[in-house]
Amino acid sequence: DQKKAKQMATANNTCDVPDAIKEAGKRFKMSKKTSHALILRINKTKLEVELEDELEDQTIEDVAGYLPDSAPRYIAYSYKHTHSDGRTSLPLVFIFYCPRDINPTLNMLYASTKTRLIDALQIMKTFDVQDTADLTQAWLNQKMKLFD
């Protein structure tokens, strides 16, 4: 059955999102922790998304420090956000980190799996970034203005 799933994933150029990742996503969404991140990657052998790291009490700049220079990652991040009217919330954002000049096949694999993963995690606020230096609180605040 795994072989068939792998053939289908390859044919669709997308990877499977296992139940364990969906469950981790549910736990993450239910958590009231601030500055909490899940870093996800694709296991190229199994062609499925897997949890690489779970971080707590980390700024978005701290999270950027955990990302590789030459491989894409998916990040689910929750943090305390202060809106323009003074209200605070704990938004959940999905960030697709894909460095420039990476292997085109790897880029395609991650890009084609992104929507499936976003749907599985049920995260509405999604952003893309190519450089870890851009992953700053100022960048995130600018992106979040769209939702204020």
Write the layout of secondary structure elements.
Elements: H1 2-12, H2 19-30, E1 36-43, E2 48-55, H3 60-65, E3 73-78, E4 81-82, E5 88-89, E6 92-97, H4 104-121, E7 125-129, H5 137-144
Parallel strand pairs: 6-7
Antiparallel strand pairs: 1-2, 1-3, 3-6, 4-5
Structure notes:
The chain is an alpha+beta fold. The chain has helices at 2-12, 19-30, 60-65, 104-121, 137-144, and strands at 36-43, 48-55, 73-78, 81-82, 88-89, 92-97, 125-129. The strands form 2 sheets. Strands 2-1-3-6-7 form a 5-stranded mixed sheet, covered by helices on one side. The protein starts with a helix and ends with a helix.
Q: Which features characterize this protein?
A:
148 residues; alpha+beta; 5-stranded mixed β-sheet; 5 helices; globular
Strand order of the largest sheet: 2-1-3-6-7
Low-confidence stretches: 5-11
Number of DSSP helical runs:
5
Q: Roughly what percent helix?
A: 25-40%
Number of strands: 7
Choose one word for the global shape.
Answer: globular
What percentage of amino acids are in beta strands? 25-35%
Question: What gap, in angstroms, lies between the N and C termini?
Answer: 45 Å
**Strand and helix order:** HHEEHEEEEHEH
Question: SS-based structural class?
Answer: alpha+beta
Main β sheet profile: 5 strands, mixed
Mean pLDDT: 89
**Alpha carbon gyration radius:** 15 Å
Short description:
The chain has 148 residues and is α+β, with helices and mostly antiparallel strands. It contains five helices and seven strands; from the N terminus they run ααββαββββαβα. 37% of the residues lie in helices and 25% in strands.
